[in-house]
Design goal:
homodimer; about 210 residues; mainly alpha; Tetracycline Repressor, domain 2; 2 domains; 11 helices; TetR_C_16 (chains A, B); Homeodomain-like_sf (chains A, B); DNA-binding transcription factor activity (chains A, B); DNA-binding (chains A, B); transcription cis-regulatory region binding (chains A, B)
Amino acid sequence: MTTSAEQEGKRRGRRPAGADTKNALIEAAREVFTEQGYEGATVRAIAKRAGVDPAMVNHWFGGKEGLFAQSVLQLPVDPAVIANEIASGDINTLGDRVVRRFLTVWDSTGGGQFAALVRSVAGHEMAVHGLRDIFLKQIFMRVAAKTGADNAMFRATLVASQLIGMGMVRYVAKFEPLASNDIDTMAAAVGPTVQRYFTGEIASPS
Amino acid sequence: MTTSAEQEGKRRGRRPAGADTKNALIEAAREVFTEQGYEGATVRAIAKRAGVDPAMVNHWFGGKEGLFAQSVLQLPVDPAVIANEIASGDINTLGDRVVRRFLTVWDSTGGGQFAALVRSVAGHEMAVHGLRDIFLKQIFMRVAAKTGADNAMFRATLVASQLIGMGMVRYVAKFEPLASNDIDTMAAAVGPTVQRYFTGEIASPS
């Protein structure tokens, strides 16, 4: 199938918008993010380096955050997809869904992907900025906005704190029994925490 | 003032049990833990390397865990002291006390000590074992034992997950507003989570 994006690519005499374009963008993104940092890197500069139309970044990655997620952070799943999955469904089982979704993704790589994420965050200012945009703005803020709760950003950072800590103990420190407990057990224990951070009473900073 | 420990040290013709002895043990411990790993290193071997009596390890550090905490992990506070502080007092405000105690210690170094801890855990199997002994066995298990709750080890790992995640977001990723919120605000938000992990209903692994 030839997409309109591919036709556009050919019309302009650039690379076709297939897997080649996607890979070229990922390679170029790694270079430009490394050179310019997360804030400094622009979609335009990355597309230019890859020799493709800037529109291809939105087409394949939904924007700069998505491209960063899949190039530098090498996340296996598009953050926007996770956000939509989590935000749809019963608001009262939000915490349960979030814990299950993240553990399922992280468990699928034996925790290797989470550990790589922590190393990149501990080592690079760039990864921190990118992660903040992806996890907080793309995922948690979107969910918090849907719940209509106040203090959305504080709630989002609290959710992030519990999920990151769960990943640290499960995949990096490997403290038992948390490291080996099945996802049902983890969701029953940690789900209510995430639920409360999203929809429960959370006092504003004094 | 001359302590009985110092007199003992002099009697045996070894170094006096003052700051010199303490520093010699810390230096020797760093070497022996690095060479032998946490499990392999013995109090006897460390004392021998330092040229002091093995009893000095208990005298100054309360044992192998305490020596590891102050040599390799460079924790500013004796874990046993923290455990006693946390375990004493009203059981219903346990979560609040834990969050305040850890944030107070970690904030005092601007988060630098927490970040160093994460780096050491991410990089060294040794640090993971030591940290498990210190945080889980020395601190949280002691507290969980006092509450008399079932699933003590699972509860301890859940508490660790929330505290480690809080530290990651506050000191390493520095996500706002969590990174700048005062300790009262953090205790109100995160305290109930830690409280539930210690004393609330937590299902056993299925």
